[in-house]
Amino acid sequence: MTADQDKSIKSLVEQRIPGKSLDAAFYTSDDIFKLDMREIFGRHWIFVAVEPEVAEPGDALVVNVGLSSVILVRDDNGDIRAFHNVCRHRGARMIPEGATMIGNIVCPYHSWTYGLDGKLKFYEHMGAEFKPGCNSLKPVALRSIGGLLFICLSDNPPTDIDDMARVMEPYLAPHNLREARIAHQADLIEEGNWKLTMENNRECYHCGPNHPELTIPLFAYGFGFSPTELDEQGRAEAQRYTDLVDASCSRWEGAGVPSREVDELTGRPTGFRTQRLPIDQSGESYTMDTRAACRIPVGAVQDKALGALSFWTQPNSWHHFMGDHIITFTALPLSANRTLVRTTWLVHKDAVEGVDYDLERLTEVWKATNQQDADLVAIAQQGAEDPAYEPGFYSPYTEGLVEKFAAWYIERLKDSLA
After folding, report:
1. Alpha-carbon distances of 49 from 54, 99, 151, 344, rounded to whole Å
2. Three-state DSSP class for 173?
3. Could you tell me the CA-to-CA distances from 413 to 6, 20, 293 in Å, in that order?
4. Structural Rg of the chain based on CA atoms
5. Do the beta carbons of residue 170 and residue 356 sit within 8 Å?
């Protein structure tokens, strides 16, 4: 990046007005995209997978984050490790993106072979002076929080992930993610900048007219609302929802299931938020009839009306934990105007498709919602690229979490550019 480019970006960061959307360049500029990949995705904790994706020794998963490729593998001792997918000989990419099963990590170029612990096991023609112990695979920082796998590509990962782990482990433990299995996984390319993907996720202002499936299990007043625009009946309904949230949280926490809101989205490198909220009608699951999609609970809690524990992390994930299944989402930038959204549905490891659950019923709400969101992100990207675009005001009632995402992003850029 040239000095002029650096100065221009610093100016954009400094002039950002709280409560308004970002300048167009943050969604369209290739220079800012490169900065995002270096400073946001290169230095922060990124959610990439779940433990059941590498359930057994030898199970491996390759995830690409920008130009970096990372191998996640469960070793012979049952521990999950992460390595850069770069051979220590001449740097060849060793395993293609996706899931596989391996006994060793073998470079296809010259057959250098590494154990699942990353140590170099086999090589030829290197001479007596060569030191194999100095040529192990380069490790990548890895943390599992309740079975959710986070990596950090920096050599100095933010240490405040310890705070997130301390808070979130008790919230996630009742759902026993580590004892679940993948029922379905779907990748969707959104034609928009990764920040538009995240901003869209952080609000439900758009939900009413755009998500007919999702708004069946979600309460209307859970989206946020302007109190001054409600009539007497509306105010009464909103109060009933507030009372239901309080009563439900008290009931769940009384049963040993942490549920109350924790909001740490800003003011820290590893921003996060969690809250368990009631589901409408039967209160059981994100399905078209709001009833459990899987007969076998994913955790130890037998209360079917467990609502949905939502967990958001900066910069790239959101998750929903219910009594019958779990859904995780990760957003991985591909370019300044394209983003991969990967959705994973999990059920109890003993659940059998066609017997304990119907896959279409399990996935239909979020498959529809994801495509609807992708369509909205695409038109938002088109708008950001229009010369007429200028930052607009966020709703103080329904877009507070969008503002917190934008504020966190600007905080992190200020920190890095300083």
Report:
1. 9, 11, 9, 9
2. helix
3. 12, 17, 42
4. 23
5. no
Strand partners, 141: 152
pLDDT in tens, 115-143: 999 999 999 999 999 999 999 999 999 99
For residue 300, name the pLDDT band (cuts at 50, 70, 90).
confident
- What 8-state DSSP symbol labels residue 134? G
Dihedral sign (CA 63, 39, 31, 197): positive
∠ CA 133-157-48, nearest 5°, is 90
Q: What is the dihedral of CA 297, 300, 298, 289, to 10 degrees?
A: 40
Q: Which residues, other chains included, contact 4 with Cβ-Cβ below 8 Å and sequence gap of 6+?
A: none
294 pLDDT more than 90: yes
**Pairing state between β 120-122 and 98-101:** unpaired
Q: How many CB atoms sit inside 10 A of residue 322's CB? A: 27
Strands 272-277 and 308-313: antiparallel
Q: Is the pTM of this model over 0.90?
A: yes
Strand pairing partners for 353?
357
> C-alpha 138: how far from its chain's center?
24
Cis check for the bond before 157: say yes or no (omega within 30 of 0). Answer: no
Q: Which residues contact 380 (CB under 8 A, 6 or more apart)?
A: 27, 192, 196, 199, 200
Residue corresponding to tokens 């507070």: 400
Q: List domains and CATH numbers for the chain.
A: 46-157 (2.102.10.10), 163-417 (3.90.380.10)
Element (H, E) at 81: strand 80-84
Q: Determine the length of the chain.
A: 418
Task: Please name which of 376, 338, 33, 366 lies closest in space to residue 189, comparing C-alpha atoms.
Answer: 338
